[in-house]
Every structure is written in structure tokens, then in C-alpha cells.
Amino acid sequence: MTDIKEIKIGGQAVLEGVMMRSPHYYAVAVRNPQGEIVMKTDKVRSIARKYPVFKKFILRGIVVLIESLVLGVKALNYSADVQMVDLQEDKKKDNTWMWVGTFAFAFAFGIGLFVVLPYFLTARLVSYGFLFNVIDGLIRILFFISYIYIISMMADIRRVFQYHGAEHKAVFTHEAKEELTVENTRKYSPLHPRCGTAFLMVVMVVAIIMFSMIPISKEWPKLYQTLVKIGIRIIFIPLIAGLSYEIIKWADRKRNMFTNLLIAPGLWLQNMTTKEPDDKQLEVAIAALKEVLRLESTRAQGTDNTLEVCP
Hints:
Blueprint: E1 10-14, E2 17-21, E3 25-31, E4 37-43, H1 47-50, H2 59-83, H3 89-123, H4 129-151, H5 155-175, H6 182-186, H7 196-212, H8 222-235, H9 237-253, H10 257-273, H11 279-300
Antiparallel strand pairs: 1-2, 2-3, 3-4
Helix pairs in contact: 2-3, 2-9, 3-4, 3-8, 4-7, 5-11, 7-9, 7-10
């Protein structure tokens, strides 16, 4: 039987709340406008359980990325609904489509800002070779850091970043096998090596290396070269994400001077994506974490039952 204290937990900050995910369940705890903590729980339905091939090297990272994005949108959608309790049900359904549209726009915006624009800026400086990919990658990293810094100045985003810090503190407390209380959780750092922010930094470095290994003929027409280079940068996103996942997973297992150096840029960047939470925000993160651990314990005891939205 799996020891509940050994279970790996991941999470995500949402609007006025935190989503915590264990291997088999997730819980989204949100503080509503009345100051109460409300919660949604459900099972994690991973395609890798049905098709074990998706547990293989690199493929598992791609699956985790896609499933995390889908689950993240669900969690954000729920937290938005909680904050808009006065809306009629038909408007809440419209809100679901609003989030789908927002996600599609955000994806297109991200491709334009972090793939297409850096490429064209780099092309004005260098035409080919390893230097092209290095400059292109550095511009992408600069754009990403600038983007995070700008949005961190917004009051609403700052609160989300505080919940992000609360999520990390709660996970650290669980990993230290301490009781999940505000007092115990408060002392831990809001910076966690397995954070998605650190993952994105590794993605950008891996991208520089990988793109440098793909030959582009100078004999090809200029337009064709451009389309191929941009296309490669988009098509290879899943593969780069899979490799980056394996690197983060390995670095988390093999903690030494080299791996600490490897994750250091991601931890540094978390100084912008996480903020110190207050006690009420820690309470929300603890509530979500306790719930997924309770569900895992119930499952381990063979008394799993139907999950629903909890008041």
C-alpha cells in the first residue's frame, strides 16, 4: 500500500484559489466573495493508464503537458464561476466558451510573441547557423522574462502569484511530512524546483540546442527557409516539452551541485511568478492539498466513491 506521505503532489494557482493534483485526483479550493472556501474534486483521467505506451520516455512528458493544460483550464473555469456567483446559469455556460476562446487566443498570441517575432528579429541580425539559434533563443527568453515582469505589476495577477506561493509552501510541508497547518506551512519557501516556471526555462534552453541540430539548406528559396524554420519551431514544441520534462524529473531525483545549477534559473524566475501569501491564502492551499490526500487515502483503503462538487 502506498504511503500517503510519499505521494507526489503538483498544483496550480487559480483565481482566488489553488488546484492540487495527486496521481489519481485533483481538488480546486477557492475562496468565494463571501469569504468561504468552496471546493471541486474529481478523478484524474489520464490516457497513460489506458494506454501504457504513453508512460514511456519523452511521451509521458508530452501527455503530462497536454493533460495539465486541459486540467488547468478546467480549474480556472471553475474558479471564475465561483467569483461570478450572481451570474445566471446560461451566462456561466457562456463563460466556458469564453475560457476556450481565451485559451485559443493565448496560444496564438504565445506562438506569435515567443516564436514568430523572435525569429524575424533574429533574421535581421544573423542568417544561419548555431549563432542564429542562440540569438533567437536569447530573444525568446528576454521576451518571456519581460512578459512575466509586466503582468506581475497587475494587482489581480499579483494575487494569483501569491496563491502560487501558497501552493508551493503547502507542497513543501507535505514533502517534509509535517502536519498541514498554517504555522508549519508559513516557514517554507515559495520557490519550488518542480514548478512549471522552471520547466519553461528548461524548454527554452533545450529548444536552442535542438534547433541548432536541424540543418537548413542555404540553397532553398528564402520564403521556404522561413516557413520551414518557423514550422519546425512550432511542430517540435511537444518533443521539446517531453525532453524538458525528463530533465526536470531527473534533476529532482539527482540533487547535486550540477542539478542545482541546472534548476537555478527557474528558481530565480520564480521570484517574479510567486509572492509571499497571507494566512488566508495558505488556508486555501492547505484545504486543496488535504482533500487530494484524503481521496488518495480513501482509494488506498478500497472505499473510493463518486466525487462531486463539495460545499
